[in-house]
Amino acid sequence: MATPAINIGIEEGARAEIAGGVSRVLADSYSLYLKTHNFHWNVTGPMFNSLHTMFEEQYTELATAVDEIAERIRALGEPAPGSYSEYQKLTAIPEETGNPDANEMLRQLVRDHETVARTAREVFALADEAHDEPTADLLTQRMQLHEKTAWMLRSMLE
């Protein structure tokens, strides 16, 4: 028996385009998750305890978010990317292979949270145009979270 066609009120081409954009949000989010987890493990200095705890809260939130983002891609009828090589092609988050000091970690995370917010904002326009409210809602929530997190991290640098 054939699998029923997806009929959620969004045309197939628009669904594929939106899912492609959401895949970029997923790649950015997963890359940020990995970087934040790395910084959690490797932070040192006088702010160790507060940053270690804060980074854990942030990567835990991101772990939940990547699952929700991937599930939205699936609901749109497309496969969710799930490999490092796919994420590397899709992400705008630069990889950190060194061991920066705590202030540089904060600077990078500010930049990276703002990057995810910008990616989500770009994709929001596609979702909005297609009247894809569930995706638009997800993206709105992600923008709000990443903008707030960037503000909190930036405040620690003042």
From TrEMBL:
It holds the Pfam family Ferritin. Gene3D superfamilies: 1.20.1260.10. Residues 24-158 form the Ferritin/DPS domain. Belongs to the Dps family. PANTHER family: DNA PROTECTION DURING STARVATION PROTEIN, GENERAL STRESS PROTEIN 20U. This is Dps family protein.
